[in-house]
Amino acid sequence: MKPFALLFLAAPGLLSVLTAAQPAPFNVVEATIPEIRAALEQKRLTSHELVTLYLARIGMYEDKLHCIITVNPNALKEADERDRERAAGRIRGPLHGIPIALKDNILTHDITTTGGALAFDGYLPPYDATLVKNLRDSGAIIIAKTGLSELANWVAGAPTPMPANYNAMRGFGYNPYDPRRDPRPGSDDGRPVLQTGGSSSGVGTAANFWPGNVGSETSGSILSPSNQNMLAAVKPTVGRISRYGVIPITADQDTAGPMAKTVTDAAIMLGALEGPAPDPNDPATKTCTPPPGRDYTKFLRPGGLKGARIGIPRAYFYERAKLPQRFGSPEPGTGGGRGGGGRGGNGDPLTPEQARAMTEAIDILKQQGAIIVDPVEIPSLATQDPDKNFALWGQCSGLNNTKGHDANCSVVLKYGMKRDFNAWLATLGPSAPVKTLTELREWNITHINSGAIRFGQSQLDISDEMDLNADRARYEHDRAKDLELAATNGIDAAMKANNLDALLFPGPSGAGIAAKPGYPTVIVPFAMVPNNANPPFPAGFDPKPAPFGVSFTGMSCSEPKLLELGYAFEQATKRRVPPAATP
User: Fold this and answer.
1) 505 backbone dihedrals φ, ψ, rounded to 5°
2) At 220, is the secondary structure helix, strand, or coil?
3) Among residues 163, 160, 185, which one has the least CA distance to residue 174?
4) CA–CA separation, 247 vs 426, rounded Å?
5) How many Å apart are CA 541 and CA 273, to the nearest integer?
6) Backbone angles phi, psi at 262, to 5 degrees
7) Which of 47, 200, 221, 556 is catalytic?
8) How many Å apart are CA 105 and CA 245, to the nearest integer?
9) Which of 90, 358, 453, 478 has the fewest other C-beta atoms within 10 Å?
10) Strand extents, DSSP E, 51-140
């Protein structure tokens, strides 16, 4: 079902909500999951009415935001079923009757899944992703599939990299905090003036189209869009949530995770997404043990910052780092793959406004009783040995890093994409629109005039040139180096040397270094800063401010502690403001 048809369908149900005999209609704007759950339990609201209200907002604002690829045509029917179950005394779980959106690379057997690629237009997969089953077992209604950077931004790199949150199915998505086109020459092709932050669009959650959405991240695409849309989110430890049924880049770094308006909502969703037992289809799900009842809300304590040791990794993430003098291709802190957005973490200093925001955040942490270790040295960024410096070891990306031109970058993503994408296609059986990565590339070439690969497909090209047998030794070497620089001599070394509970990063800037070992992060909304574009906007154009968050990162399976810290910071600040563009 296309978004433009929604207002007509939503109107009768909307009328019933507004004319119901109650003191005031339920307002979904900024409504949290606990507030929605209370309204349902107190019979002030039905799931049918709730879904209707969200569909009405989609009908009013989607044409401005372009954040949806498909709306579930059965959302109201599913809401009716949840209402019948509630009336019979059967409550499935913490999301019973509550709508949740999914990034459109997560398989649903009854809603088309495209990954944003034209080759998958109209495709109904033969099975649900494990995380979808878990959500439905918890009572959630899948209301829509969100926009994304096509195939999670592993389609086009250099020389014409695909802009974040563009896909051939829906075009560009827009940020509700400034939903206009970029007016600058060379960027006036429809891309947004304010970046949405990457391929797991948090736009619909920020605009109150639903209370939360599920994104996926390889290196930044939960954290960056959450940062840009003023959301709280959990980028989990790789394996905390099953990846079975999620279109992959590489199993080494891929994870799904919750995005919401509050840390509480993200914690509730995390428990619903995680399986009660390891998934036999994803061996990584043995990595972390769920808390009793998969209840992460018990870690949410307002006083959780008192006595917590939090490190400030100044060099490279807050301030320009002194790097070894060798030509290389250092990657941004959000790395390659599913990410992008924000300064800091790429060798560039923070803007003055971002720096002031982080100074204020650190002061608040101190006021709340946290022990701040400042600065904290990350050995792999402090070393002057160019072969052991994290900043000089990026991900191979685009035509600049084809075979023979990839000595100083990691092949993990381009190798993993061929290995894992082909394996994923095999799970689709005969229904798969294409059977291999090679077939997808060929299909794209023959459908250029239909809108496929507007920016080329250099990422797919450099992946498909990999030989999974002949190049395995190179991949294993690079994977080991990724872990050495990001974990052993990176996050692990910094945290262990200083006995830290977490590292504090500006915005999503720590995503890249945490992504390689698959470490978790909790991001919390905090500030609004100027949208300082380079090159600048034309005279007379007034860009709106951009959201800016703070991130707490830890080692494997440390989500409970990170949620505790993030929640305590959120309660001490409460800085999220809704976008004015979708009142």
Assistant:
1) -115, 145
2) coil
3) 163
4) 12
5) 42
6) -135, 160
7) 221
8) 8
9) 90
10) 68-71, 99-103
Q: What is the pTM of this model?
A: 0.94
Residue 32 CB-density burial (10 A; 0-12 exposed, 13-18 middle, 19+ buried): middle
Residues 560 and 297: their CA atoms lie apart, in Å, by 9
Cβ distance 324 to 385 under 8 Å? Answer: yes
Token pair in block for residue 309: 């040791």
For 36-48, what is the HEC assignment?
Answer: HHHHHHCCCCCHH
What the block records as the tokens of 101 is 């959106």
As a residue count, the chain comes to 583
* Sign, Cα dihedral of 335, 341, 342, 343: positive
- How many CB atoms are closer than 10 A to CB 339? 32
Q: Work out the widest C-alpha separation in the chain, in whole angstroms.
A: 72
Measure the CA–CA gap between 526 and 98, rounded to whole angstroms.
26
User: Can you tell me which residue has the tokens 């574009």?
Assistant: 533
CA 526, 531, 532 angle in degrees (round to 5)? 125
**Helix, strand, or coil (residue 343):** coil
Q: Which of 47, 138, 149, 199 is catalytic?
A: 199
Instruction: Give dist(CA 118, CA 560) in Å, integer.
Output: 39
**Residue among 228, 269, 316 nearest 134 (CA):** 269
Q: What's the CA gap between 440 and 433, in Å, rounded?
A: 9
Catalytic residue among 103, 414, 516, 561: 103
Angle at 150 between CA 523 and CA 229, to 5 degrees: 30
Cis peptide before 535 (omega within 30 of 0): yes
Q: Position 36: which residue type?
A: I
The model's pLDDT over 131-163, given as tens digits with 9 standing for 90+, comes to 999 999 999 999 999 999 999 999 999 999 999
* Burial (Cβ within 10 Å: 0-12, 13-18, ≥19) of residue 510: buried
3-state secondary structure of 145: strand
DSSP 399: G
Q: pLDDT for 199-239, tens place per residue?
A: 777 999 999 999 999 999 999 999 999 999 999 999 999 99
Residue that the structure tokens 């002949």 belong to? 470
141 DSSP assignment: E
Partners of 380 in beta bridges: none
219 in catalytic set:
no
Task: Reduce the DSSP state of residue 275 to 3 states and report it.
Answer: coil
